[in-house]
Specification:
The chain is α/β, with parallel strands linked by helices and 328 residues long. Helices cover 27% and strands 27% of the residues. It has 2 domains: 237 residues, 3-Layer(aba) Sandwich (Aminopeptidase); 67 residues, Beta Barrel (OB fold (Dihydrolipoamide Acetyltransferase, E2P)), CATH 2.40.50. Helix 3 packs across helix 8. The protein starts with 5 loop residues before the first helix and ends with a strand. It binds ligand LFNQLBSZ and zinc ion. It catalyses: N-succinyl-L-glutamate + H2O = L-glutamate + succinate.
Length: 328
């Protein structure tokens, strides 16, 4: 961790008290409901104040968001009174971050639901419960606007280096505002996913009424090895969000996709029909076979589909990829 700023190191070690100091001194109410979770709220409790949850490290080897958030919090700590909303920071899986692995026992980002079957005994199940308790109480305390950005990085390269998944039913003004903000943050593609997912952002959207997005910023890399300049727009948009300012001028709206089908690994025979170099958003033409699982064959439907998050190494029963179609 040599060469990393103090705030980035503190976040990577889930030492959120190392970040809280200057906010507490500036009069914010500081709470740490569990390890790696920090809440900064206004002491003059105002139900009209927006609430923002920023989470990183839900997967331990996805480090660019940890670095990005470390820098944002370090900058904000110079003028802590500029924080314009009630904020919760979650460092998702500290043990996995330390081990530089996606997870220790099982994928934390499939545990934000009641359906955990075989992995109920995993270390991540305890952590998911802890995070859900803190999250539910944070959003229950107020906030006419509730936001959650769960920051990740993808395993594979992507034809859109920064993209987002928007869980649940998101329509009208909320959808328009979120897409506009994502555009200003340099997010090139947004995937609407109404399927139940067990992900953190699906939990905050469904159970807490938040406007939520999983945001993918580049690719998995070791801490300190990320080129954050590729995500300057996301950094500037988040910095403005924290201060209640207008987002920077947008490069345009993201391209919008929706999930056409999920590739689910039902057995150890599951195979993708393409290789491990195929990037996210690679196109497949109608009728093409994209995966096979014993006798079951996954084929593209009537229009071009694009593959996202293909991963044959997931546990049986989990999604091994999404096939999406362009809608806007
Ligand atoms: O690149 C990959 O295969 C995974 C990257 C990642 O962790 N993505 C999230 C997306 C969550 C969502 O669908 O909202 C995940 O798979 O948990
Ligand atoms: Zn992830």
């Amino acid at each position: 961790m040599d060469g990393l700023s103090q705030a980035v190191r503190a976040l990577a070690q889930a030492n959120v008290s190392g970040i809280a100091g200057s906010f507490g001194n500036a009069g914010w109410s500081v709470r740490m409901p569990a390890s790696g979770i920090l809440q900064l709220t206004s002491p003059t409790h105002s139900p009209r104040r927006p609430r923002l949850l920023l989470s990183v490290g839900i997967h331990g080897d996805e480090t660019a968001p940890i670095e990005l958030l470390g820098h944002l919090l370090h900058e904000l700590a110079q003028t802590p009174r500029a924080l314009a909303l009630d904020l919760m920071i979650v460092v998702g899986n500290p043990a996995a971050i330390e081990q530089e692995k996606r997870f220790v026992d099982a994928d934390l980002n499939r545990m934000f639901s009641d359906h955990r079957d075989a992995v109920q005994a995993a270390a991540e199940a305890v952590r998911a419960d802890e995070i859900m308790r803190a999250t539910a109480s944070f959003f229950a305390e107020g906030g006419t606007q509730k936001w959650h950005f769960d920051l990740h990085t993808a395993i594979r390269p992507s034809l859109y280096p920064a993209f987002a998944v928007l869980p649940g039913v998101l329509e009208g003004a909320r959808r328009h505002i979120l897409l506009g903000w994502l555009g200003s943050a340099g997010i090139g593609a947004a995937i609407l996913n109404r399927n139940p997912a067990g992900t953190y952002s699906a939990y905050t959207a469904g159970a807490c009424g938040a406007t939520s997005a999983t945001i993918e910023l580049g690719q998995v890399a070791a801490l300190g090895c990320n080129d954050l300049s590729r995500f300057d727009a996301a950094r500037a948009a988040l910095a403005a969000f924290l201060r209640g300012g207008a987002p920077p001028a947008s490069a345009g709206m993201p391209h919008v996709f929706k999930v056409a089908q999920e590739l689910v690994k039902r057995s150890e025979s599951f195979r993708l029909a393409f290789d491990r170099d195929t990037p996210n958003f690679a196109a497949f033409q109608p009728g093409m076979v994209v995966a096979q699982d014993g006798a079951a064959i996954y084929r593209v439907g009537a229009e071009t589909e694009y593959v996202v998050f293909p991963n044959p190494d997931v546990r049986i029963g989990l999604r091994a990829g999404l096939m999406v179609v362009r809608v806007e």
